[in-house]
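Handout, section B. The chain below has 453 residues.
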Amino acid sequence: MSTNLIQNIAQENIQKAMETVLDSGTQPIVAIRKEAYEKFLQKGLPNKKNENYKYTSIEQHYTGKYQFYPYLKSENINIDEVFKCDVPTLNTQVIVLMNGWYYATVQQPKLIKHSNGIIVGSLNEAINQYPELVFSYLGKAAHKYHDELSTINEALMQDGIFIYIPAKAQLEKPIQLINIVVADEPIQVYPRHLIISESEFENQILVCDHSLNPSPFIMNGLMEVFLKEKAKLSFYRMQNAHNHSVQITNNYIEQEKESQFHTAFITLHGGTVRNNLWVDLIGSEAQSNLNGLWLADKNQHIDYHTFVKHHTTNCESNQLFKGILDDEATGIFSGKILVEKGAQKTNAYQSNKNLIINPSAKVRSKPQLEIYADDVKCSHGSATGKLDDEAMFYLRSRGIAHKEACQLLMVAFASEITKQILIDALKEEVETLVDKRLRGELSRCNRCSIACS
């Protein structure tokens, strides 16, 4: 199929889905959808001529017949069983999203406002109850970057999680969002999340992306995080879906003065994964720590893209992203640090390291720096290689079998990321999952019986 034909089919499929929802939602949502639709007609899908998507073709995936449901389609799942998955030893407030829709139950009301002012629940319900609060933020971070995949989400957005944490308030326990896809046919889903924190206390949020059966799907999600002055947030994401999945996450973080954002993305499995992280440090002395780890084998394709913009003085950003690739998997990292003219006293660091297990695996790495201030400390770097021969010799000389020695070295390589997880129970569970994944003992989704190849 020619490139032009792929483009045409993909765009027609998306356009058809958009036309079914253009007039749905509240009036502000309808306006957002129509504006996004117009942008889509102008820009279309990103293709390889777009430098940011040079190595990841999204178009080909949209040529398939993926159903789009502008409502919550009932699925026969046992929600209690879903609650048991992921991190059973972690004491969290669990929220379930199914196929892009907030899954309201007696145990999980649509929206709760706690006595300390914290609001947690469905984004759509928050729009109904707190429209002024929601629309003071919705789209404000994402619109700065005009990303094509975000535009598609804006036109087709379904529901998602809304979290508002006022100053001096703290979550009783971390929020764990279980974002599941389950369907007996190929589907496309568009979750949309909005998180606003004004709290100086450190609050923690974990998102787990899963599929419950082997049907192919495209998930194009968008999350905006707004950290007000001195706010602190730790955010973790675990991705574990089968090889016929396409997972796209668009993550926008806007930080004000002295705020702190700490994150770790862990990609255990996925067919095609594209994680976009945009960070705007708009207040002085803001700090952002971005970490990511991807484990890929077979023909999996994992792509991380970061853009960190230092707008003002005395801010710090740290990036560490690592990949372990086997078989014919592909790993991509492209990251850019932009230091604006007035952003003096900036500290900005970026590192990407990749471990190639099989010579057929591929890595493409593109770290970038663009600096317009003269009093800064910035660095970036990338390294890709195989298992260290000297370390391997040392382990083998002490009687450790070759396979076990490889396992030990890979776990050690990954540990630089897993130790960045600041919730002990979650860190232990992720370390266990990473160890099992590297031993080939972790399925491509906890409940998926498909034989991915």
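Note. Residues 445-453 have pLDDT under 50 and may be disordered. Compare this with the example in section A.
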